[in-house]
Automatic annotation (TrEMBL):
Biased composition (Basic and acidic residues): 66-83
Sorted UniProt keywords: Leucine-rich repeat, Repeat
Pfam families: LRR_8
Region (Disordered): 1-26, 56-97, 109-145
GO (cellular component) term, any one: cytoplasm
Domain of life: Eukaryota
Protein name: Uncharacterized protein
Compositional bias ranges of the Acidic residues kind: 84-97
Species per Swiss-Prot/TrEMBL record: Scheffersomyces stipitis (strain ATCC 58785 / CBS 6054 / NBRC 10063 / NRRL Y-11545)
InterPro entries with a match to the protein in the record: Leu-rich_rpt, Leu-rich_rpt_typical-subtyp, LRR_dom_sf, LRR_domain-containing
Keyword Repeat applies: yes
Length: 468
């Protein structure tokens, strides 16, 4: 037989094809077959190349078994003796017979499950002891105290709400929009009032957007329990209407009988507004940027919490109807100085002036360095990312002043004699005016320095001698 012939392992001989039996079916010795087998057609292993067989099971496995136990009776012993840092044990031929009794098996692989102090049992095992009880681990301690949130029966507490109010953004949200966080609805409290305010807010926003799409200039948001006016109201200023007749278009916004505590700066970007109804709300102050509503002809601020009005209310050129009462306005004090009207304007007449009240501890004719810094912050258009850096690198002592500066800047609370934003006023003066049909309406003027106070006194020549 030729050794290099690849057909030899298949018992093919070199006889003629004409023979009756071309295949040699005579059995050959095993040593002869293994010697002539090529590597490419190896079908069996020789005695020399046979490796150690794996240990067999000592018992027949059952389909129902206890959870956590292995089929191998020595598996629990191997699991306890496993060392992951050690080298695997090499078995000799002589140790094969004593494997089940004396071997100490170590593997580099981790066990399939961690060792248990007591075996877990399956619910389908008939050997389960139903009287046994396995204690469950205690739940982790809750880090949040949900009892701090007021319930439905409890009244809203501004002190508690302040703990959950987010001052991290200094009133600037993630969309770089200003939010007045001091007078907003109690948020993050989980009470019913907050949920209702969110529903009414979304409904009011839909009404504003629908008015813009349907080209409606009259927006009625009365009696909706609104705590906050949506910022989409400023988009009404971009509404363009083409008409053939010469009848003027009247833009009207009605917010009566709501729960508004303050007005957003976006409202005063709606400069086309002609009629504004704010009756029966909880507004405690009107912002100075109300003078931006130059086309406002009808204003109703009755039944609110106003003690005085900003001096910018006198700068509305088109105001024809003004309803200011009832409100808890400041009464004319006994030491107020009466003023004679020399201008002859019957629509607006100044009746009384109070003595200047100095609020600053250091009296100076020029603004202090603190006033200049706060004025710079108020006039800066800060972004949300910048406020995060301010909070991180600025001492916490100045955070409240930064919030006030950003708020005053968005409401344009400027000095009565100059363009500086008044964050901490140097002095203030109250005046009582007769505005249209309203008598003795208090108006406050804020001044940023002693020099502005002197200029104010110089402009009011009639009161200089009396005030001095």
């Amino acid at each position: 037989m030729e050794k290099e012939n690849p057909l030899l392992p298949f018992a093919f001989n070199s006889s003629s094809f004409n023979d009756n039996l071309p295949l040699d079916t005579t059995p050959r010795k095993r040593a002869v077959r293994d010697e002539n087998v090529s590597l490419a057609y190896r079908t069996r292993k020789s005695e020399a190349s046979r490796t150690l067989n794996r240990p067999t099971l000592a018992f027949a496995p059952s389909l129902k078994r206890k959870m956590g136990e292995s089929f191998n009776e020595k598996d629990d012993i191997k699991r306890r003796e496993t060392e992951f840092d050690s080298e695997p044990t090499v078995l000799e031929d002589s140790e094969e017979d004593d494997y089940k009794e004396n071997i100490s098996y170590k593997s580099i692989l981790p066990p399939s499950s961690p060792p248990l102090d007591h075996p877990l049992v399956s619910e389908f095992d008939f050997n389960t002891n139903t009287n046994s009880r396995y204690d469950l681990p205690e739940s982790p301690e809750n880090k949040h105290d949900y009892n701090d949130f007021p319930s439905e029966s409890q009244s809203y507490s501004p002190v508690k709400a302040k703990q959950f109010s987010s001052e991290a953004d200094f009133g600037i949200d993630s969309f770089n929009r200003f939010k007045n966080i001091s007078n907003r609805c109690p948020s993050s409290t989980g009470d019913r009032a907050f949920e209702e305010s969110q529903v009414s807010y979304v409904k009011a926003r839909d009404i504003i957007l629908a008015s813009f799409e349907d080209v409606k200039t009259v927006i009625d948001l009365e009696g909706m329990s609104l705590y906050e006016l949506p910022d989409e109201i400023k988009d009404m200023n971009n509404l363009v209407i083409f008409q053939s007749d010469l009848e003027p278009i009247s833009y009207q916004l009605y917010l009566s009988n709501n729960k508004l505590r303050c007005l957003p700066p976006s409202l005063f970007k709606f400069t086309k507004l002609n009629v504004l109804g704010l009756r029966q709300n909880k507004i405690s102050s009107l912002p100075a940027c109300i003078n931006k509503l130059v086309h406002l002809t009808d204003l109703n601020i009755g039944s609110n919490r106003l003690q005085f009005l900003p001096s910018q209310i006198l700068e509305l050129p088109s105001l024809q109807t003004f309803r200011a009462g009832p409100n808890p306005f400041l009464k004319v004090p006994e030491d107020a100085i009466p003023v004679e009207n020399i201008e002859g304007n019957s629509l607006r007449q100044k009746k009384f002036v109070s003595k200047p009240r100095i609020l600053a501890s250091n009296r100076s004719l020029v603004p202090s360095l603190k006033t200049i810094c706060l004025n710079r912050i108020a006039q800066y258009d800060v972004s949300y990312q910048e406020t995060k850096k301010w909070k991180k690198f600025t001492p916490k002592l100045y955070h409240s002043m930064i919030i006030r500066a950003i708020k005053k800047g968005h409401y344009h609370q400027s000095c009565s004699e100059c363009s500086n934003i008044v964050v901490e006023a140097y002095a203030e003066v109250f005046e009582w005016w007769d505005i249209l049909q309203n008598k003795n309406v208090p108006v406050r003027r804020q001044l940023c320095s002693g020099g502005c106070l002197e200029r104010y006194q110089a402009h009011n020549i009639n009161e200089i001698d009396e005030i001095a």
